[in-house]
Amino acid sequence: MSSNIIQDTAEKVKSMVGGEKGRKIADLDTVTQTVSPKDRITSDFGVKMGNVDEWLRVASNDKTGPMLLEDSFARERIHRFDHERIPERVVHARGAGAFGTFRLFESAEDVTMAGVLTDTSRETPVFVRFSTVQGSRGSADTVRDVRGFAVKFYTQEGNWDIVGNNIPVFFIQDSIKFPDIVHAVKPEPHNEVPQAQSAHNNFWDFVYMHTEATHMFMWTMSDRAIPRSYRMMQGFGVNTFVLVNKKGERHYVKFHWTPELGVHSLVWDEALKIAGQDPDFHRKDLWEAIENGAYPKWKFGIQVIPEAREHDFDFDILDATKVWPEDLIPVRYIGEMELNRNVDEYFPQTEQVAFCTSHMVPGIAHSDDPLLQGRSFSYFDTQLSRLGINWQELPINKPVCPVMNFNRDGQGRHTITKGQVNYWPNRFEARPPASAQEGAYIEPPFNVQGIKARTKSAKFREHYNQAQLFFNSLSEPEKNHLAAAFSFELDHCDDPVVYERMSQRLADIDLGLAQTVAELVGGPKPEKQTRPNHGKKASKLSQLEFPPAKPTIASRRIAIIIADGFDNTVYSAVKAAVKASSALPFTIGVRRSEVFPAGASKTPGSGVKPDHHLEGMRSTMFDAVFVPGGAESIKTLSKSGRALHWLREAFGHLKAIGGTGEAVELFKLAFALPEIQVSTNDQAVESYGVVTMAHVSPDSLKETVTIAKEGAGLL
Ligand code: HDD
Fold first, then answer.
1. Number of domains within the chain
2. Beta-strand relationship, 656-660 and 685-687
3. Is residue 602 part of a domain?
4. pLDDT in the model for residue 700
5. Same structural domain, 487 and 368
6. What is the CATH number of the domain that holds 667?
């Protein structure tokens, strides 16, 4: 009891193996077992089992008699199996997680005393879980939805969680409304339909009734809600937090994650198809990238407003349905996160990880954001029904610094604490709780005044300005996608009250948008803008303003289509070039068994064994398509409906497409668009994202390879 906890912390932290960044992994290693197929199977109580295939029963060669309850081995297996499932998360049930490292390149000590945000020599281990919100654990990845972006920092001062999303605002302002919005967006109660979609009456009825949701539904109808990859989306803390520095000064803060690969989305038709073709698309994408060493990275930024400036804006900075426009409050990028290790087992790590907005370390604090305060109750509470009272002890949730307190017992407790007392103060020289100087979490004094009432500041009542700001700031294609998304969603609502009212509501934002949608979904076409558009725009709302840090095709999936008689020189050169750029080439053949190049003897072993065949994988799984020439190969592909569909679909989804030699003819046939220019010689021509080269000479081969490497410059 008399041990000095502060000193203990420092010593334990120093002595952890694996260095700073390996600290959490080293900690997990203490509970990780590697099971070898050579190990003998035992019961849970360690006894080797002699037979794991047959239940003990009364039987003979000619008679199979009743089974015996006495077989505790068999009962143990069934008993364990019966209880494998735990309740899935009530929201964000489907997710994928990975480990990584957070590094700080600029100290934020002017605004906070948090070690993780001030000590540039540290590498803080993190665990990140990405998720969809609406669907259940087995739903598809590419549905139209908000994505969760939850980060757990295992800092030397304890765990800090930023439980964020890929969209910077939220549907509601007050956490008391959370059960309603979640009930409304989840499958309807009478028939549990639809799964993982907001395209139904109840959701659109809810957001119509809650004008505060207007800004958020503009974001969820935008391309942000159908990301290409978890690795290509921004993350936001969404809520307003407080940073406190050593002088005790408070600053309001919003947290940002900006991906190195840029922000990219699928197109809706792709998203719909992938949901059926590969429901695990995002999960696999993250896994594959990490396994291939293409570690995803995000810059970490803060937007900071000094406490004294809280009321200087025309919106309330504590309102989670509002962004802090970056033109007003620039993002200061101070750190970087890299994800570099996949989980060893999904359930104990990704499923059992428990994030809580109230997990904060000294220097980071709650603001009076009414959504945040309710959240901080909810996250703690929900872990009880998911994981039980001792959820903090689960290896993935345990901090890397020592834990010492008198919380005891409860179901599933497995820490064994030695000592005679379990209360404080006590007769054994118990030290008092630490002071701020010793690293304690002390709430900075804060003057609170007001009347006790169920109300919020007047600025919370304005719900449209930023919805218009967002719409005005989008590019034309993004606006078109938005209109298409509303039209899809409202078409799925069969109660006229819902789609008619919503058609009207859109006229509060933009008349053109409202008219396009109303016409398509059969709502009354609004004649005039019901709320004048202020005409303002802001930067960094359109995702086109987040290109990759540097152009790259690293980790992108490139399909190379071949049939017998393909041009092997081009095929091999392009494949090698794609690999050299750290992208992933996939050979797609007319069949998966060997395909032979032009002039080959067709003896087994002389051809190429494709990774997939045209029916097994569709164009939706790839970022770009390349077709090498070869007269016989192109003849076969030209006659294949599936091959033509592949190319047309890739073209329709705006993929980069390239081809050489006879492939030019295949493209003319597939795209049949007179506007598309194609090459007629050994010069590369790019038109509508299709790059062609009709003749390949040794010199031009080099150019083909460059084009292949740059993914036609379109990725
Ligand atoms: Fe929440 C999970 C993000 C509002 C209550 N939320 C959850 C997760 C994320 C978010 C990323 C998944 C964490 C994981 O991977 O385990 N939630 C948000 C954001 C919000 C938000 C960005 C708005 C700023 N949430 C919110 C409110 C409440 C909740 C207002 C309740 C008052 N959220 C929960 C929850 C969940 C959850 C029910 C389900 C599983 C869990 O917490 O651990 O407690």
1. 3
2. unpaired
3. yes
4. 83
5. no
6. 3.40.50.880
Q: Are residues 154 and 278 in the same domain?
A: yes
Structure tokens at 588: 């797609």
Both 478 and 338 in one domain: the answer is: no
Cβ atoms of 137 and 84 closer than 8 Å: no
Supply the Cα-derived Rg of the chain in whole angstroms: 29
Residue 242 and residue 107 in contact, taking contact as beta carbons nearer than 8 Å: no
Residue 139 CA to ligand 1 centre (angstroms) = 18
What are the residue numbers of the active site? 92, 165
Whole-Å CA distances, 416 to 267, 271, 404, 419, 431: 53, 49, 12, 10, 21
Question: Which residue, judged by its Cα, is nearest atom 31 of ligand 1?
Answer: 375
Residues facing 132 on adjacent strands: 147
Look up the CATH number of the domain holding residue 370: 2.40.180.10
Residue 327: inside a domain, yes or no?
A: yes
What range defines the domain where residue 233 resides? 95-393
Contacts with 390 (C-beta within 8 Å, 6 or more apart), sequence order: 410, 411, 412, 413, 414
- Per-residue pLDDT of 464-509, as tens digits, reads 999 999 999 999 999 999 999 999 999 999 999 999 999 999 999 9
Q: How far is the CA of 178 from the centre of ligand 1 (A)?
A: 10
Q: Per-residue pLDDT for 371 more than 70? A: yes
Helix, strand or coil, per DSSP, at residue 402: coil
Residue 655 CB contacts under 8 Å (≥ 6 apart), including other chains: 619, 622, 623, 624, 625, 689, 714
Chain-centroid distance of CA 705 in Å reads: 33
Q: Is residue 525 part of a domain?
A: yes
Going by C-alpha positions, the residue among 219, 156, 287 that lies closest to residue 471 is 219
Report the residue among 126, 130, 236, 355 best suited for mutation to probe ligand 1: largest number of ligand atoms under 8 A from its CB: 355
Give the ipTM of the model, two decimals please: 0.99
* CB-ligand 1 contact for 164 (6 Å cutoff): yes
Final residue belonging to a domain, choices 393, 419, 440: 393
Same domain, 275 and 369: yes
Spatial CA neighbour of 147 closest among 89, 91, 214:
91
Query: Does residue 504 fall inside a structural domain?
Result: yes
pTM: 0.95
Q: Is the same domain home to 363 and 482?
A: no
Compute CA 109 distance to the chain's CA centroid, rounded to the nearest angstrom: 30
Token pair of 283 as six digits: 């999960």
Does the C-beta of 92 come closer than 6 Å to ligand 1?
yes
